């Protein structure tokens, strides 16, 4: 199989579609999008992969493991049926319509079963490791989303877009990976985490003959009425997304991975995090792990660019932004349940001049700025959605500026995703420049994943490692 990156390191054994039981619901079900969802309309799809060390032959894989995964996936989709459906996006505002997810009876999810065609021992060890690996090689383990369709009606044209695809890849006698590609419009990190956790739990239960899934706390909640929209933000956001579609497409096209892009994982242990907190405590009380880790990464990124020859000039005051999202579920008024299906995250912008990041006070400046942005968003009289009606103005204001963000969260226990054959050996987010996850083996450690060019990775890793107190 050749993926979008032109990589043919895996052979497809089967390409199938998995549907929930036919008695799921009525023939057609529409799930309207909220302003939280519509905000992500122009963003590219997300890619992640889990590696499982479970030695098995091709025969055992195709005759035992794959059938179990298909059966449990179908059972999971009974609860998570929107992942089978399609995103319907009008291309105009002619009828004042907004996008929705449509599920039709017998809709399905694309599932690819593949086999690594190189030396399995080397491939599994390398791709599930921490050292720099070619992004193209990791992307070979993640399927593309099926192509969009188009429906042309009397008054408007509607794009019909699949929202999820899955690939299970065998490394004979060593293990397998499960790769996910999904649209951000349909699910934020919490929703996708709940979906994958539900699938893993159901598969593990089915392996031992259990079929009671009703008590799983990750089953989704769909009531859109809990998201209040008195200002009509859904319609406003949709109009903005249509207007900015070409700009977003051009911007993301310029950021597509290059052939020299690599993915590496750096582990920050509990003692190192504690030392960063000690430094930060001289500036602010009660600074979180998230704040100090992101502040440290931000400063290291700026220093790496300086080390690679990017001019840092005090007079030009080069502005850069660090962006992160806040999960609003528990902070809305009233709060919504943690298993709410969809998006419920709101972006926060931290802004500093590069010169403020590369100097001796860089880490402290970054800590204070990230903390300021966080406090401004969650500790104000207007609530966690303060400023949401100007969010597209913020995006326009940062056009052409240096910016990057963080994906994932140490609050999500990715390494508990056990399908019944053991917890993952490795979890990777491939689609983001910087991703954060808890450690597999130590509760207090963190895994930091980075996608950079080879020369950027070398400079960044050196600065990152040398700056930590071991």
From TrEMBL:
This is Quercetin 3-O-glucoside-6''-O-malonyltransferase. GO terms for molecular function: acyltransferase activity, transferring groups other than amino-acyl groups. InterPro entries: CAT-like_dom_sf, Plant_metabolite_acyltrans. The keyword Cytoplasm does not apply. The keyword Acyltransferase applies. Coiled coil: none annotated. Keywords: Acyltransferase, Transferase.
């Amino acid at each position: 199989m050749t993926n979008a990156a032109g990589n043919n390191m895996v052979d497809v054994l089967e390409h199938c579609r998995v549907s929930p039981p036919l008695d799921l619901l009525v023939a057609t079900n529409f799930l309207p999008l909220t302003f939280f969802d519509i905000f992500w309309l122009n963003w590219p799809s997300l890619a992640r992969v889990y590696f499982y060390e479970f030695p098995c032959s091709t025969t055992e894989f195709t005759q035992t493991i794959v059938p179990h995964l298909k059966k449990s996936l179908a059972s999971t989709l009974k609860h998570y049926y929107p992942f089978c459906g399609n995103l319907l996006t009008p291309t105009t505002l002619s009828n004042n319509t907004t996008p929705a997810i449509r599920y039709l009876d017998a809709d399905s999810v694309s599932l690819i079963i593949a086999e690594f065609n190189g030396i399995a021992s080397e491939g599994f060890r390398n791709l599930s490791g921490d050292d720099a690996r070619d992004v193209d090689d990791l992307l070979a383990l993640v399927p593309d989303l099926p192509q969009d369709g188009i429906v042309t009606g009397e008054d408007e044209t509607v794009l019909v877009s699949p929202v999820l695809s899955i690939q299970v890849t065998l490394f004979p006698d060593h293990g397998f990976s499960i790769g996910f590609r999904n649209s951000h419009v349909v699910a934020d990190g919490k929703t996708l985490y709940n979906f994958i956790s539900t699938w893993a739990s159901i598969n593990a239960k089915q392996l031992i003959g259990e079929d009671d899934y009703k008590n799983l706390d990750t089953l989704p909640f769909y009531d859109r009425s809990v998201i209040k929209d008195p200002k009509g933000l859904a319609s406003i956001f949709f109009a903005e997304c249509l207007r900015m579609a070409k700009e977003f497409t051009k911007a993301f096209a310029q950021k597509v991975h290059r052939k020299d892009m690599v993915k590496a994982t750096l582990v920050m242990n509990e003692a190192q995090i504690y030392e960063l907190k000690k430094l930060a405590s001289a500036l602010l009380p009660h600074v979180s792990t998230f704040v100090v880790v992101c502040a440290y990464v931000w400063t290291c990124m700026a220093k790496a660019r300086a080390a690679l020859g990017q001019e840092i000039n005090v007079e030009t005051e080069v502005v850069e932004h660090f962006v992160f999202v806040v999960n609003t579920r528990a902070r809305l008024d009233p709060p919504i349940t943690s298993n709410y299906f969809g998006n419920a995250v709101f972006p926060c912008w931290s802004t500093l001049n590069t010169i403020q990041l590369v100097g001796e006070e860089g880490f402290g400046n970054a800590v204070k700025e990230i903390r300021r942005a966080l406090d401004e968003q969650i500790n104000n009289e207007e609530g966690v959605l303060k400023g949401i009606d100007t969010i597209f103005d913020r995006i326009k204001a940062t056009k052409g500026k240096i910016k990057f963000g963080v994906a994932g969260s140490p609050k999500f226990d990715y390494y508990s995703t056990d399908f019944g054959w053991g917890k993952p050996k490795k979890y990777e987010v491939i689609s983001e420049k910087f991703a954060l996850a808890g450690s597999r083996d130590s509760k207090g450690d963190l895994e930091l994943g980075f996608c950079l060019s080879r020369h950027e990775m070398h400079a960044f890793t050196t600065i990152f490692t040398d700056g930590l107190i071991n």
